[in-house]
Amino acid sequence: MRVELARTIAAVALVLVLGGAPGCSGGMPGGKLYPIRGEVVSITAARNEIVMQHEPIAGFMQGMTMPFPVAKRDLLEGIEPGDRVEGVLLVEGARYALVSLAEIAKGTPVAAESDS
Ligand SMILES: [Cu+2]
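^ thats the input. predicted complex w/ copper (II) ion below
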Protein backbone atom coordinates (compact mmCIF):
# COMPACT_ATOMS: atom_id res chain seq x y z
CA MET A 1 0.00 0.00 0.00
CA ARG A 2 2.65 2.47 1.11
CA VAL A 3 4.94 1.69 -1.79
CA GLU A 4 2.08 1.97 -4.24
CA LEU A 5 1.23 5.45 -2.95
CA ALA A 6 4.85 6.57 -3.10
CA ARG A 7 5.04 5.43 -6.72
CA THR A 8 1.94 7.37 -7.62
CA ILE A 9 3.32 10.53 -6.00
CA ALA A 10 6.63 10.09 -7.83
CA ALA A 11 4.82 9.72 -11.15
CA VAL A 12 2.74 12.83 -10.55
CA ALA A 13 5.84 14.80 -9.51
CA LEU A 14 7.61 13.75 -12.71
CA VAL A 15 4.70 14.92 -14.84
CA LEU A 16 4.73 18.28 -13.07
CA VAL A 17 8.48 18.70 -13.64
CA LEU A 18 8.22 17.82 -17.34
CA GLY A 19 5.16 19.99 -17.75
CA GLY A 20 7.08 22.94 -16.37
CA ALA A 21 9.85 22.77 -18.95
CA PRO A 22 9.92 25.57 -21.51
CA GLY A 23 8.80 24.48 -24.94
CA CYS A 24 5.36 23.24 -24.06
CA SER A 25 2.57 25.21 -25.64
CA GLY A 26 0.16 27.29 -23.66
CA GLY A 27 0.41 28.84 -20.25
CA MET A 28 2.44 27.17 -17.57
CA PRO A 29 1.53 27.11 -13.89
CA GLY A 30 3.80 29.57 -12.15
CA GLY A 31 5.16 30.98 -15.40
CA LYS A 32 4.43 34.45 -16.73
CA LEU A 33 4.24 35.36 -20.40
CA TYR A 34 5.38 38.74 -21.69
CA PRO A 35 5.10 40.07 -25.22
CA ILE A 36 8.51 41.15 -26.47
CA ARG A 37 9.67 43.14 -29.49
CA GLY A 38 13.07 44.20 -30.71
CA GLU A 39 15.87 43.92 -33.23
CA VAL A 40 18.08 40.86 -33.64
CA VAL A 41 21.75 41.57 -32.96
CA SER A 42 23.15 38.05 -33.36
CA ILE A 43 22.14 34.40 -33.31
CA THR A 44 24.00 31.45 -31.81
CA ALA A 45 22.03 28.52 -33.21
CA ALA A 46 24.34 25.97 -31.57
CA ARG A 47 23.26 27.24 -28.18
CA ASN A 48 19.65 28.03 -29.12
CA GLU A 49 20.35 31.61 -28.23
CA ILE A 50 19.50 34.96 -29.74
CA VAL A 51 20.88 38.36 -28.77
CA MET A 52 18.22 41.00 -29.08
CA GLN A 53 18.04 44.72 -28.57
CA HIS A 54 14.61 44.63 -27.03
CA GLU A 55 12.11 47.33 -26.28
CA PRO A 56 10.95 47.83 -22.70
CA ILE A 57 8.91 44.87 -21.45
CA ALA A 58 6.06 46.28 -19.39
CA GLY A 59 6.22 45.03 -15.82
CA PHE A 60 9.44 43.09 -16.34
CA MET A 61 12.48 45.03 -17.61
CA GLN A 62 13.68 48.10 -19.44
CA GLY A 63 14.84 48.11 -23.03
CA MET A 64 18.37 46.72 -23.48
CA THR A 65 20.55 44.41 -25.51
CA MET A 66 20.81 40.93 -24.04
CA PRO A 67 20.84 37.22 -24.94
CA PHE A 68 17.71 35.09 -24.75
CA PRO A 69 17.53 31.31 -24.88
CA VAL A 70 14.85 30.00 -27.21
CA ALA A 71 12.59 27.13 -26.19
CA LYS A 72 12.87 25.43 -29.58
CA ARG A 73 15.49 25.77 -32.30
CA ASP A 74 12.73 26.00 -34.95
CA LEU A 75 11.97 29.46 -33.63
CA LEU A 76 15.26 30.72 -35.10
CA GLU A 77 14.46 29.51 -38.61
CA GLY A 78 14.49 32.35 -41.12
CA ILE A 79 15.51 34.88 -38.47
CA GLU A 80 18.63 36.90 -39.23
CA PRO A 81 20.63 39.66 -37.55
CA GLY A 82 19.07 43.04 -38.26
CA ASP A 83 15.52 41.67 -38.45
CA ARG A 84 12.81 43.23 -36.34
CA VAL A 85 11.04 40.51 -34.42
CA GLU A 86 8.31 40.05 -31.91
CA GLY A 87 7.54 37.11 -29.71
CA VAL A 88 6.58 35.87 -26.30
CA LEU A 89 8.92 35.53 -23.35
CA LEU A 90 8.17 32.93 -20.69
CA VAL A 91 9.53 33.83 -17.25
CA GLU A 92 9.58 31.29 -14.43
CA GLY A 93 11.41 32.50 -11.37
CA ALA A 94 14.99 33.21 -12.43
CA ARG A 95 14.62 31.32 -15.72
CA TYR A 96 13.32 32.76 -18.95
CA ALA A 97 13.06 31.69 -22.58
CA LEU A 98 11.46 32.83 -25.80
CA VAL A 99 8.56 30.49 -26.53
CA SER A 100 7.44 32.29 -29.66
CA LEU A 101 9.30 34.41 -32.20
CA ALA A 102 8.33 35.91 -35.54
CA GLU A 103 9.96 38.33 -37.93
CA ILE A 104 7.97 41.52 -38.48
CA ALA A 105 10.45 43.28 -40.79
CA LYS A 106 13.54 42.19 -42.68
CA GLY A 107 16.65 44.12 -41.70
CA THR A 108 19.97 44.79 -43.32
CA PRO A 109 22.68 42.75 -41.63
CA VAL A 110 24.61 45.09 -39.35
CA ALA A 111 27.97 43.45 -40.03
CA ALA A 112 27.62 43.76 -43.84
CA GLU A 113 28.04 47.54 -43.88
CA SER A 114 30.09 48.71 -40.94
CA ASP A 115 31.57 52.04 -42.07
CA SER A 116 29.74 53.85 -44.84
CU1 LIG B 1 16.52 42.81 -20.98
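The beta strands are 32-44, 49-54, 64-69, 84-92, 95-105.
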